[in-house]
Amino acid sequence: MGREAVGLVLEACIILELWELLETLIANGLVEHSCSSNLVYNLIEKRRSDLVCLCLKHVSDLQTSDILCILKYFLSPPKDAYSSMAIVRKEWESQALCAIETATDMGLSGKILSLAKEASVLLMVAHDEFSVSELCLNYLLASSNLDEVILSSCISKLNDSEMKSLIRYLGKWLKKYERLPQVGPCPKASSTLSLKACVWVPTLVDIVKCLGLVLDEHFSSLVLHLEFHEELRSVVGVINSLALEARISYSIANVIENLRTKVKVRVIPSDKGYTHKLIEKLGFLMGREVVGLVLEACIVLELWELLETLIANGLVEHSCSSNLVYNLIEKRRSDLVCLCLKHVSDLQTSDILCILKYFLSPPKDAYSSMAIVRKEWESQALCAIETATDMGLSGKILNLAKEASVLLMVAHDEFSVSELCLNYLLASSNLDEVILSSCISKLNGLEMKSLIRYLGKWLKKYESFPQAGPCPKASSTLSLKACVWVPTLVDIVKCLGLVLDEHFSSLVLHPEFHEELRSVVGVVNSLALEARISCSIANVIENLRTEVKGA
């Protein structure tokens, strides 16, 4: 179709409201500004917000006047515009749900699954908490039609109400990027997974650039008019946080980049998770003071992924940050507290006491991060079961997998999330009898009751499953790391003995402990009888063996 023919068809579509035909023309790239200079204006007059968004996506030569009309329309939409804007919300919702479904499809390859997970987070961030008109604004800020000159010109023509709406929208985006630093552009998801919305999510660069132009064009108004101050305070706080995070990330990257250059490790700076990969390979070369500063920054800025990398790679010592455990508990990062138990070898008695009290009587807002720990145990248990039912494995490996599956099932089933966290504490190399005794002596009545109940559960498990026992080989052979974090019967009995030593009079005198203790005593007697019988049988067999050798 020629340009004139397209122009005539466009005019007819507007007059006769042939919206489906118009949508087809725009979506197929047949529409240019020169075909119909009033197209955007007419669509706004007809309140077809969905088609205005389509123009932003597919019409490559929109003029400054068009961009200004669209910006003003989305920042201060008339009441009768929301019905067509709802179509835009449905598009975003549909794409977000599609991404989530793909991200949970276990039949996909690792790379595709990772891409789907990135896309699902990105689209969730782009959709949640935004109004319908703000969802439409996403298309404008991510549009190829928008350069700094055009955007600056349009922003200079906004009134106070529109300015306030724009600052509020930009502030929402800044808070999103502050809370979820792992979110970033995901263009591959558009072509690989058909998640087209991924290319229409404004980047942090887009948001900061737009905010900079707002300040350039309206600085005096923003300072002089009180109605802008609340929005601006909120935005400035987030910008300071992001700027500090960027400076620290840049400093860390510089330190490790220097190490990378000297040691000649092959990690490409453009790779996703570049800093994390470098820390994994070269973090051991970082000095204690540097690690300490990075830890403090991670806590303040809540850079949890970076902190996790440092802890998991054994780069954290108590001497680097003496308040690390306390700060993690204050921030309710139970999963990272467990990681400290696994990888920080010099935790102090005060740290152990804080952790013990936290897991025995967790605050309500601690359970969300504890759920991460439960998922780890579930994942390891399921992996053990899958391995144990793999008939293609050799006999020894299969037997080892079966032992591990029983052990992990015992360690997971019937325990609460906080009790699963306690497993790491009781199996920790940081915990000797002196430290544990000191910590137990400082527990209150409620904490004591929780500890006795937890130990009682373990005793019943070992009574019900006598075949369950330590299985350290499964950690190295089958990558079932959780196997080394299952408290043994010796660990449980030792802890129970210390409870009785430290709190004997309280346990006897206070009736609220009696029911728990009766239950525990019954299991202990049963286990003791079993041990005596096993010992007697072992003695008989040993005597027979000696006599047979003598004969």
Sum up the structure in keywords.
Nol11_C, 72% helix, Nucleolar protein 11 C-terminal domain-containing protein, 3 domains, 551 residues, signal
What's the gist of this structure?
The protein has 551 residues and is mainly α. The protein has three domains: 37-186 and 198-242; 261-321, no CATH class; 366-546, no CATH class.
Describe this structure in words.
The chain is 72% helix and 0% strand. It folds into 3 domains: 37-186 and 198-242; 261-321, no CATH class; 366-546, no CATH class. The radius of gyration is 32 Å and the shape is elongated. The chain is built from 27 helices and no strands. The protein is an all-alpha fold and 551 residues long. The mean pLDDT is 82. InterPro entries: Nol11_C. Keywords: Signal. Residues 21-235, 305-512 form the Nucleolar protein 11 C-terminal domain. Pfam families: Nol11_C.
Distance between the termini: 108 Å
Which structural class fits the helix and strand makeup?
A: mainly alpha
Following the backbone from N to C, one meets helices and strands in this order, namely HHHHHHHHHHHHHHHHHHHHHHHHHHH
**Model regions low in confidence, pLDDT < 50 over at least 5 residues:** none
Shape designation: elongated
What is the helix fraction of residues, given as a range?
Answer: over 70%
Round the mean pLDDT to the nearest integer and report it. Answer: 82
Beta fraction: under 5%
Number of strands: 0
- State the assembly state of the protein chains: single chain
Organism: Nyssa sinensis
Domain Nucleolar protein 11 C-terminal: 21-235, 305-512
Protein name: Nucleolar protein 11 C-terminal domain-containing protein
InterPro entries: Nol11_C
